[in-house]
Amino acid sequence: MKKSNKLKIGIVGANGYAGAEVLRLISAHPDCTLVVATSRANEGKRVCDVFPALPCPLVFSGMKDPLLKTCDAVFVALPQTAGASLVGELIDCGVRVIDLSADYRFDDTELYNGVYGVTHPRPDLNKLAVYGLCETARDKIRAAKLVANPGCYVTSVLLPMLPLCRAGLASNIIADSKSGVSGAGRKSDENYSYCNLDENFKAYGLFTHRHAPEISEKLGKEVLFTPHLLPVKRGILSTVYFTTPDPDAALEVLRGAYKSEPFVSYTDALPEIGHVAHTNRCMFSARFSGNRGIVISVIDNLLKGAAGQAVQNMNIMFGLDETAGLPQYSPI
Amino acid sequence: MKKSNKLKIGIVGANGYAGAEVLRLISAHPDCTLVVATSRANEGKRVCDVFPALPCPLVFSGMKDPLLKTCDAVFVALPQTAGASLVGELIDCGVRVIDLSADYRFDDTELYNGVYGVTHPRPDLNKLAVYGLCETARDKIRAAKLVANPGCYVTSVLLPMLPLCRAGLASNIIADSKSGVSGAGRKSDENYSYCNLDENFKAYGLFTHRHAPEISEKLGKEVLFTPHLLPVKRGILSTVYFTTPDPDAALEVLRGAYKSEPFVSYTDALPEIGHVAHTNRCMFSARFSGNRGIVISVIDNLLKGAAGQAVQNMNIMFGLDETAGLPQYSPI
Amino acid sequence: MKKSNKLKIGIVGANGYAGAEVLRLISAHPDCTLVVATSRANEGKRVCDVFPALPCPLVFSGMKDPLLKTCDAVFVALPQTAGASLVGELIDCGVRVIDLSADYRFDDTELYNGVYGVTHPRPDLNKLAVYGLCETARDKIRAAKLVANPGCYVTSVLLPMLPLCRAGLASNIIADSKSGVSGAGRKSDENYSYCNLDENFKAYGLFTHRHAPEISEKLGKEVLFTPHLLPVKRGILSTVYFTTPDPDAALEVLRGAYKSEPFVSYTDALPEIGHVAHTNRCMFSARFSGNRGIVISVIDNLLKGAAGQAVQNMNIMFGLDETAGLPQYSPI
Amino acid sequence: MKKSNKLKIGIVGANGYAGAEVLRLISAHPDCTLVVATSRANEGKRVCDVFPALPCPLVFSGMKDPLLKTCDAVFVALPQTAGASLVGELIDCGVRVIDLSADYRFDDTELYNGVYGVTHPRPDLNKLAVYGLCETARDKIRAAKLVANPGCYVTSVLLPMLPLCRAGLASNIIADSKSGVSGAGRKSDENYSYCNLDENFKAYGLFTHRHAPEISEKLGKEVLFTPHLLPVKRGILSTVYFTTPDPDAALEVLRGAYKSEPFVSYTDALPEIGHVAHTNRCMFSARFSGNRGIVISVIDNLLKGAAGQAVQNMNIMFGLDETAGLPQYSPI
Q1: How far is C235 from chain D (nearest CA, A)?
Q2: What is the ipTM for the molecules in this complex?
Q3: Does the annotation count D152 as an active-site position?
Q4: pTM, whole model, 2 decimals?
Q5: Is residue A322 within 8 Å of residue A204, measured between CB atoms?
Q6: Would you say residue D2 has pLDDT above 60?
Q7: Annotated catalytic residue within A71, A134, A152, A165
Q8: How far apart are CA D215 and CA D219, in angstroms?
Q9: CB B282, CB B263: distance < 8 Å
C-alpha cells in the first residue's frame, strides 16, 4: 500500500485521555495517516512538547482547522454536546465520524436529554447514528456515516449480557463495576490526586450514574449499576449478578456468542484486568449456583472501552482488517 | 498505673500479618506488656531483626514457651486447627484467649467441618467460645474465656447488615466485597507478587468463599458473597445489595444502630477505604431506590477486620477503656 | 494526669498535609488537648466533615481565633512568610511556637531571602529561633520560645551526615533523595494526579531545590542535592555519596552517634522506606569501598520529616516523655 | 510480503518476563512468524492457558525442540550459562542468535567469570559475539551471528554517557539508578510480594551489583553504580553525576549524539519513566553547574532494556525497518 492510499484521519479533542489514546493508536496504524489533531488548551503547541510520551510531529490545531474536512474519518472526543455542530458539518462534507461522547448513543433522544440534563443539539443526526458495539452491529457500522462509540462501563456489561438477554436468559441484573482512574478523564482536581486515590477505593454514583440508562436501553431491561474507582490507571472489571431460568443454556450462550471473534472471548478461568490492560480485548467468564449466575467481564476502559473500539469501528467502516493497529497481547 | 499492673500478653503466630499487627498494637498499648511472641519460622531470632519495621526487643519463641501460660491473655493467630490443643491448654491454665482463626467462629460445628474440610479438634471448646463482633456482644465478651475473632470480610458485612436483618428489613442480600492484598496473608507465591497484582484487579472464590457461610450463619439468612482482590495493602469495601419492605425504616435503623459507638458509624457521604485504613473503625452509608437498598461499608482488614477487633475484644474482656491502644484517625 | 493538666494546643494551617498530620498526632497524644485548628479554606466546617478520615469534633476556625493565644503551644504550618506576623503575636503572648515552614530555619537571613525570593518579615524572631533537629539540639529546644522544624529532605540527610561532617569524615557529598508524593502538599494540579504519578518516577529541581542550601548551611559545606518523586504516599530515602579519609572511623561514628536514641538508629541491613513509614523513626546504614562511602537513610516525610519531629520538639520543650504520642512501629 | 517471506523466529525461555515480552513483540511484528517458544516450567501447555494475557496459539515446547534449528533467528532468554551449549548448536546450524543473558556481554571473559562466579562455558563463542547496544554498533550487529543484548541498567547509563566518555568529557561518574520490579524477573519470593514492595522503596547491591563492571568495561572507566527498587512494574531512571572539563561541549555532545535516531533522544525538559514506559525509547537530559553535570536518563527496562532492544537488534541483523514491531508512543 502506497502512502497516498492511507486513510486521512483527524482527531478532535486529542488532548483528553481518550483522544490522546486514539492519537497513539492511529500513529502506529499501518493504514492511516494522522493529518490533524485539535486541542483547545494546547492549540499551536507541538504534540510532543505537551506530551513527551507521544513523539508526534504534529502541532495541535483548533476546531476550525479546515484540514478536518479533508479527512476520510474524524474521531470526535469532546464533552457532551460540545461537538454537535462540528459533527454535522463534517458529515455534510462527506467525512465519516466516530463520536466518543454520549451524544449519539441513545435511541431515545428524550432519555438522553433527561440523563445528561441538556437538549440534544442535533436530534436529526441522532437518527443517522449507529451504536458502535462492534461485534453486535458490523453491517450497520460498515455503512454508517456516524458511529456513536459506546460507554466504557457499558461495553464491559453489554458484551456478555446482550446475548443472554436476547435469549431471555437473564433477569434481575445487578452490575457492580470497578474502573481505573483514567475513566474520569484528565483532571486538575484534588479528588483525583495521587495522595487521594493511591491505597484507596470507593463507590460513587449509586442509582444515578449516566451509564445505567445506556445499559438498560441497550439490554431492553432495567439494570442496577454501581460504579467504583480502582487505584489502577486502566481497566474495568464488571461483576454482573443475575437470575436465569436455565443455567446450562446460559453458559452455552456465553461460550458460543463470540466464538470466532478476535477481541471478545469466553474463558474458563476468571479473567482479570491485567489480562486485557493495554489491549482491545474483552474477556469474560461465568459461574452458576442454582438459578443465580455471575459474570465477570474485563476490558481496558481506554481501548475496548473507548479509543480501541473507536479504531475498530473505523476499521470496519473502511473495510480494513478489523484487528489492524489494535493490540491483542497484554504486557506485564 | 504501675508496670506490674499492666496485662501480660502473649501472641502465638506473631509472624503472620494479623499476628504481627497484634504485636504492633500491643507494643504501643498503654495497659499491656508483651511478654512472649511465638513464630515457628523465626524461633530464636529477634523480632527487630526479622522485621526491621518492628523495633521490638523480644526474641521469637516457640509454641511450647512456658511464658504463654503466665499471661493474662493470649492472642492466637494460627492457621485453621493448628492452635486447637494449645488454646485448650491455655484456657485450662486460666489464660483468656482471643483466637483469630475460624476455629471457633461457627455455632454449628458441622458447618465448620464442611466449610474448612476438617474435623473440629475441640467441639467442647467451641461451646465456650463467644463470637467477638464487639459492638453486638459486649456482655458475653466481658465474661468470655475464649473469644472467636470474626472474619475480615464478615465484619464489614455484619456490622451494617445485622441490625437490618434483626429488624426484618433486608432480604435477597448480595455482598460484593473488595479487599486489600494483606488479607491473603504473608506469602511467597507468584500470584501475590508485585508484578502480578499492581495495576490488576480480580474476583475469586465465586459461590465458594469460606466467609459466605460465616456471614449467612450470623445473619440467619443466605447471602451471596463475592470477594475481589484490590491493589492496595489494606482495607475492605463491601457493596451490599438488598431489598427492603421499608426503606425509611431501614435508613432509620442504620443511622441509629451504632450511635454512641467510638468505632462504628453511619455517615451521610459514601465512605472510602482511605477513611478507615490504619484505624479500627467501620464506616458505612446507604442509598435506596424503590425497594432496593445499597450499603457501602469500609474497614481496615487488618485492624477492625483482625488485630484491631482482637485488641478491642481484649479491652472489653479486661474492663479497659475500649478504645485504648486503637487508632481512630486515618493518616494520609 | 487530670484533663486540666494537659497541654492546650493550637494548629494553624491544619488543612495541609503536615498540619493535618499534627492534628492526627495531637488528637491521640496522652498529654495534649487540641483546642483550636485553623484553615482558611475550611473555616466554619467541622474537621470530620472535611476529612472523614479524621473524626475530630472541632470546627475549623480562622487565623484570628483568640483561642490561639490561650494555648501552651501552637504549631504553625503555613506557606513561607504567611505566618510571620502571627508567630510574633503568639510569642509576645507567651505562647511557644513550633513553625513548620522554612521561615526560621536559616541562621543566615540573607541566604533565606535569596533562596525563597522574599524579604524575611521578622529577622528579629529569626534570632530567637532554634533549629529543631531534635537529637542534635535538645538543650536549646528545651528552652526555646520558637522552634524552626527542619525540612523533610534535610532531616533525612542531616541525621547521618552531621556527625560525619563534624568529625571531618565526609567530603564531596552528593545526596540523591527520593520522596513520596505527600511531600508536595495538598494540590489540585494535574501534575500530581493519580494518572500522572502512578507507575511513574522523575527527578526535579536539579541544582536548584530549596533544601540544598538548608542542608549545606547546617553541614557547613556544599552539598549537591537532587530530589526525585516516588509513586508512594509517604517516605523519603536518601542515597548519600561521599569520600572519607577513614572509612573505619566513619563507620564507627555512624554506629555510635545515636546509640541511645529512641527514634534514630544505625542498622546493619540496608533500611527501606517501608521500615519507617507511619513512624517518627530515622534509620540509616552505610557501605564503604576504598575511600568512597554511601549512606542510605530513610524517614517518613510527614512524621520525622514534618509533623512527627514537630511533636517531638513539643515533647522536649515541655519536658514530656520524648516518645509520647509518636509511633515507633511501622505497619505493613 | 507473503507469509513465506516472514522471518521464522524461536524464543528460548519464553516463560520469563523478558522472554514473554519478546513473544509479545514478535507476535505483533509485521515481518516475523513465531514458530517455537520454549519453557521448562510450562512445556506442553498452551501459552494462552499459562498466560491469559498472551492469546498465543502456540504450545510451549522444550529446549530440545528441533524447530529451533529451522529458525532464522532465536532469542535466548535464560539465566547465566544455562543457554551456552544451545547457543553454540544453533550458530553451528546457521541460526542467528540474540542472547539476553550476560553470557556474551563482556569483552574480558575473566571479568565475566569473576563477576558471575562461573567459568564461561564457551569463550570461543564470546569472541564472535557483538555487544548489541544498537545505536552504537549497527555495522557489527548487521553482520553478527551472535548478539549479546546489553543489561537494562547498563543501557540507561551507556546511551548518554558513552558519547561523553568517548569525547573525554566525563569523569568521576556515579550512576544512581532506580528500576521497576519486573527487572528482578518472575519470582515466587516474599521479598517481591505486593505487600512488601507497594509503598516501599529500597537500595540494594551497593558496590557489588553485576551491572557495574559491565558499565565500566563499556565506558572504559570506573563507575560507581547503585541500583534501587521502585514500586512500579516497568521502567528505569538513572541519575548520573559526573564532572566535566567543559560543560558547553558536553551539552553539545549530548544534544548531537543521537540526532537522527528514532528511539534515542535528548530532551530539554527532564524525562520521566512515564514518557518511555511500554516503548523502545531512551530519553535523556542534562543540567550543569560549574564543572558538575547531571544526566537524567529513562528507558523501559523490559523493552529498550531487554526485549525491545533485542528485537531492534534482530531488525538490524536482517535489514528490516529498524522500528518495525517496536512501540514508540507511551500510553497513559
Answers
A1: 8
A2: 0.97
A3: yes
A4: 0.98
A5: no
A6: no
A7: A152
A8: 6
A9: yes
